[in-house]
Amino acid sequence: MFCQFGYSSYLCILITNTIIYNNMKKFAFIIAACCLMLGACAQNSQNENQGKENNMGKTLIVYFSATGTTKAAAQKLAKEFNADLYEIVPEQAYTAADLDWRDKGSRSTLEMKDKSSRPAIKGRCENIDQYDTVWIGFPIWWYTAPTIVNTFIEAHDLSGKVLNVFATSGGSTVDGSYNDLKKAYPQYTWGDSRLMN
Ligand SMILES: Cc1cc2nc3c(=O)[nH]c(=O)nc-3n(C[C@H](O)[C@H](O)[C@H](O)COP(=O)(O)O)c2cc1C
Known about the structure:
Elements: H1 2-54, E1 59-63, H2 69-81, E2 84-87, H3 107-113, E3 133-139, H4 147-154, E4 162-168, H5 175-184, E5 189-195
Parallel strand pairs: 1-2, 1-3, 3-4, 4-5
């Protein structure tokens, strides 16, 4: 009898332990699954926030580059902002002689002396409406933006966008060019400026 009682209580304890152990396993599994789900949700919301922080709407990088330096800077910016690129292409390409700033009669010197000059460009950016932020980049010529940049700006409606400026130079800062553009086109919203030497 005692033996029987002892055996059944042992069996009873064993079964209870097994049930508790199995339930604990289930419980642990449920807790682990919940943790994983919460982790995934937190990660998602973090990704969304990062996306919002970096994403100032759709971004376009517009640039003019006579000898390639600004083009390379534009490509870097496009990677940084996951942006599209648009090159301002002169109808008549600039030759080395055109770019000779020591020559008082060179094309670039003449264009930069005449602030109303608007060198012709090939085509226009047809889908500019879809962008919220536009970076405009150029090499600094005579401490400011080449007048071909004015040709581009005046050929497009840039209202409602944030316009940022970037430039490359032999040492001049971007501030003069930025302020000149801001002054020339006060109807637009001007944001950041960056020298990318
Ligand atoms: C006509 C001309 C004028 C320039 N004027 C300046 C200037 O005022 N300040 C400066 O730091 N660099 C000046 N530079 C140097 C260019 O800004 C620099 O080399 C630029 O990175 C060239 O860019 P790109 O290769 O995209 O054309 C001038 C270059 C040229 C051709």
